[in-house]
Design goal:
The protein is an alpha/beta fold and 319 residues long. It has helices spanning 38-54, 92-100, 109-120, 180-184, 186-199, 205-210, 220-228, 232-256, 272-283, 305-317; strands spanning 3-9, 13-19, 25-32, 61-68, 72-73, 78-79, 104-108, 129-134, 138-144, 147-149, 260-264, 295-298. Helix 5 runs antiparallel to helix 8 (232-256).
Length: 319
């Protein structure tokens, strides 16, 4: 029995890896995503990285799984991304089969993150869970009764695009709908803290110090760090985003009542501070009539969750 080829295509970086039949990561190559290179550049990198890993022995690979950082039509096995130029309606699985000569499956990165954590990480042994990737945007994947729930249009689990309030802020989905992503993503936090620092520089001394004195350098990372240090302004801004995120997660809890909510993505680097802040925000909507025991925890595989999910897809493709 051969190994599995796993590919993770992200907006910031990409990875190509080998996993053994037990799901153990054997070797991995990393690269930085060049947006100006477009689809063709990325496909060339993937082909070259895979060739370096496999050498001349392609027979060592029995199947391939791909995690893609954007919408995917799982039934048709096509990328349907509308925010990444060159990928729209691209038959990525067909390309991979032609290049690598093995069965292949592709899914979006949030679904793959959910699969990765369920099979190999923090979700092992549970019946149901939600994986949430908190990064530039907000993505999520849902495991129900031990299976990934994709939905009729392969769009299940879009917690980032739940409309929570009226808003003039345009979300990445194109709507002025007060989406969770427009209110609580890493991008949203960065925008809020930059605006605050420009408007109230005297109250943003610690924040600005962390950003080298330049408000435009502020991001969710500096916001979380200053909040952890006890900076009053940072705590207020951070908790504003946590309340919006908590509202979205409470909707998910009410609908699905999952065993666990697993937090991944760049913002999750704030660690236990993020978890405790989110739990505190959720307490504001606690109802003794509708209590819940859903556990909120950090991803065990960190930013490797989608890559492990791609390995799980490869195992499925190779059956």
């Amino acid at each position: 029995m051969g190994n599995f080829l796993a590919i993770d295509i992200g907006g910031t970086r990409f990875r190509v890896a080998h996993f053994d039949p037990e799901g153990r990561l054997l070797q991995v190559k990393h690269g930085e995503t060049l947006h100006s290179g477009g689809r063709d550049w990325m496909l060339t990198q993937l082909r070259e990285y895979a060739a370096e890993l496999t050498g001349k022995n392609r027979a060592a690979i029995q199947s391939c799984g791909i995690s893609f950082g954007g919408p995917v039509d799982f039934k048709r096995q096509r990328v349907t991304s509308v925010h990444t130029p060159g990928w729209k309606n691209f038959a990525l699985t067909e390309w991979a089969r032609g290049i690598f000569g093995v069965p292949c499956l592709v899914d979006n990165d949030a679904n793959c993150g959910a699969l990765g954590e369920y099979r190999f990480g923090a979700g092992q042994g549970v019946e149901s869970m939600i994986y949430l990737t908190l990064s530039t945007g907000i993505g999520s994947g849902i495991i129900c009764h031990g299976h990934l729930h994709r939905g009729r249009d392969s769009m299940a689990g879009e917690i980032g695009h739940l409309p929570l309030t009226d808003s003039e802020e345009v979300c990445t989905c194109g709507l002025k709908s007060g989406c969770t992503e427009a209110l609580a993503s890493g991008r949203a936090m960065g925008r809020k803290v930059q605006e605050f620092a420009k408007r109230y520089p005297s109250e943003s001394a610690r924040l600005l110090a962390l950003a080298g004195g330049e408000a435009q350098n502020l991001s969710a990372r500096e916001l979380a760090k200053a909040a952890q240090e006890g900076d009053t302004a940072a705590i207020s801004l951070f908790m504003e985003s946590m309340r919006w995120l908590a509202r979205a997660l409470l909707i998910a809890i009410r609908l699905l009542d999952p065993d666990k909510i697993v937090l991944g993505g760049g913002v999750a680097q704030a660690g236990d501070f993020l978890v405790q802040s989110l739990k505190k925000a959720l307490q504001e909507w606690w109802s003794p009539m509708f209590p819940y025991t859903t556990e909120i925890i950090l991803a065990k595989l960190a930013d490797y969750s989608p890559l492990y999910g791609a390995a799980a897809l490869a195992m499925e493709a190779g059956r």
